[in-house]
Design brief:
By secondary structure, this protein is mainly alpha-helical. About 70% of the residues lie in helices and about 5% in strands. Strand 4 and strand 5 form a beta hairpin.
C-alpha cells in the first residue's frame, strides 16, 4: 500500500466518525422532542373533557404505522438506483418480505407473526396512554424507562444472556426508583394503578423487543419498515371491532362530533416520527445515541409539566428518576467492562493475589499450549485458577 494512502484513509475514517457523531446529536435532539411531544399531546388528549378513550387513541395512532414502508420506499429506491444503477422493484420487495418467512409474506405469517407483535404493541401503547389519564407525563416517561431492565431480564430467560453483577445492580436500582415514585403519592389510590400500568407497558415493550430478536433476528432497514407497516395494517383491519365494541358498550366515551382532531393528529405524526428515528437512526449513528435520546425525554417532560401544567417533581420523584437513570446508564456499559468488574470481585473473594502464569508455545511440538490462566492463592493457602474470560453467573 502506498504510504500516502494511509493518512487519507485515516482522515476519511475520522471524517466519517465526526459525521456519525453530528448526526447522532441531531437524532438525539429529535428523539427527545418527538418522544416528549408525543407524551405531552397524549396527556392532553387523555385528559380532554369529551374524550375518555385511550384504546381509540392507541388504535388511531398505530394505524399511521402503515405509512412507514411507503414513505421509506421512494427514497430507498432512488438511493439504490443512484448507487447501483437500475433497481428491480420485485427483487427488492421480495427480499424485504423474507422477514416474515422463507416464502415471504403469507397469510399465515401475517396472522400469527404480525398478529403477535401487534398485540404486544397494543398492550404497551394502551397501558402507557391509559396511565397518562391520572399520572404526570414526566412520571410516566421516567417509570417507562425501566423497560431496558425488563429487556435484560427477558434476554437472560429467553436469549440465555449471561447474568452480570452490574446489571443485577441495575435491576435493583430500577426497583428502588419505582418504589420512590409510589411513595410520593402513597401506596394506594389511582396513582398505584397508573404506576402498575406503566410497568406493564414497559414489560410488553421489552417482550416485543426480545421476541423480535428471538423470532425475527437481524433485519434490514427495509424489512423493519415493511414489518411496521404490516403491524399498522393488522391493527387497522383486525382490531377495529375492538375499538367499536368498547365505544358502543360505553367502556370508552368520546363525542364523535367534537373529537380533538388536532391532538389526535399531533400524537400520530410525532409518534410516527419517533418510531422512524428509533428504528432507523441506528443506521446513521451509534446505538448509544438512541438510548440517550429516550433518556432525555425525562427532564424535557419534567420541564414541560412544571412550566405548562404546574406539576412539579417532589423529592421522592427526583430521587426515583435519578435511580432509574443510573439503572439505565449501568445497562449501557459494555459487557467486557462488566466482566472486568466481575473478575475483580471474584478475585477479591477467592484469593489475595492473582499472578499470571505463562506457558511457552511451540507450534507443532505437541507440547503445552499457551495458557493465560491466573494462579490464585487463597487465604487458606490453596490454589485456584481464575480464567480471565470468566463472568459470574448466579
Amino acid at each position: 500500500m502506498d504510504e500516502s494512502e494511509t493518512p487519507r484513509a485515516v482522515n476519511d475514517d475520522s471524517r466519517s466518525q465526526v459525521k456519525k457523531i453530528l448526526c447522532g446529536i441531531l437524532i438525539v435532539t429529535l428523539i427527545a422532542i418527538s418522544w416528549s411531544g408525543t407524551t405531552q399531546l397524549a396527556k392532553s388528549t387523555a385528559t380532554s373533557d369529551d374524550f375518555h378513550a385511550p384504546y381509540f387513541l392507541m388504535w388511531f395512532s398505530t394505524n399511521w404505522m402503515s405509512l412507514v414502508f411507503p414513505i421509506l420506499c421512494v427514497p430507498s429506491l432512488l438511493y439504490r438506483r443512484h448507487r447501483y444503477g437500475a433497481t428491480n422493484f420485485n427483487e427488492w420487495y421480495s427480499e424485504a418480505t423474507k422477514i416474515f418467512s422463507s416464502r415471504g409474506l403469507t397469510f399465515q405469517s401475517f396472522i400469527f407473526k404480525v398478529g403477535l407483535f401487534c398485540i404486544l404493541w397494543q398492550i404497551a401503547n394502551y397501558c402507557y396512554m391509559k396511565a397518562l389519564e391520572t399520572k404526570a407525563a414526566a412520571d410516566v416517561t421516567a417509570i417507562f424507562s425501566i423497560n431496558n431492565v425488563f429487556v435484560y431480564i427477558l434476554s437472560v430467560i429467553i436469549l440465555h444472556d449471561s447474568i452480570l453483577l452490574l446489571k443485577i445492580l441495575s435491576v435493583l436500582l430500577s426497583i428502588a426508583g419505582v418504589v420512590l415514585f409510589l411513595e410520593e403519592d402513597g401506596f394506594s389510590g389511582p396513582s398505584v394503578s397508573s404506576v402498575l400500568l406503566v410497568i406493564l407497558a414497559a414489560f410488553a415493550s421489552a417482550l416485543y423487543q426480545v421476541l423480535f430478536k428471538k423470532i425475527i433476528g437481524n433485519a434490514t432497514v427495509t424489512q423493519v419498515a415493511l414489518f411496521l407497516t404490516m403491524i399498522g395494517l393488522f391493527n387497522m383491519t383486525f382490531t377495529s371491532t375492538v375499538m367499536l365494541t368498547l365505544n358502543i358498550s360505553g367502556a370508552e366515551s368520546m363525542n364523535w362530533n367534537n373529537l380533538p382532531w388536532s391532538l389526535l393528529f399531533g400524537v400520530s405524526i410525532l409518534g410516527l416520527i419517533f418510531n422512524f428515528l428509533v428504528n432507523f437512526g441506528i443506521v446513521f449513528t451509534f446505538p448509544l445515541f438512541i438510548s440517550v435520546g429516550m433518556l432525555l425525554g425525562i427532564p424535557v417532560n419534567a420541564g414541560i409539566d412544571a412550566i405548562f401544567r404546574s406539576d412539579y417533581f417532589g423529592i421522592f420523584r427526583i430521587f426515583g428518576s435519578l435511580l432509574i437513570v443510573c439503572s439505565f446508564i449501568l445497562l449501557l456499559i459494555p459487557d467486557h467492562l462488566h466482566e472486568s468488574v466481575c473478575k475483580i470481585y471474584y478475585a477479591s473473594r477467592v484469593g489475595k493475589c492473582c499472578k499470571p502464569r505463562s506457558v511457552e508455545l511451540r507450534l507443532g511440538s505437541g507440547q503445552d499450549k499457551p495458557d493465560d490462566t491466573n494462579e490464585c492463592v487463597n487465604d487458606d493457602g490453596t490454589n485456584d485458577r481464575l480464567s480471565p474470560n470468566n463472568t459470574i453467573k448466579l
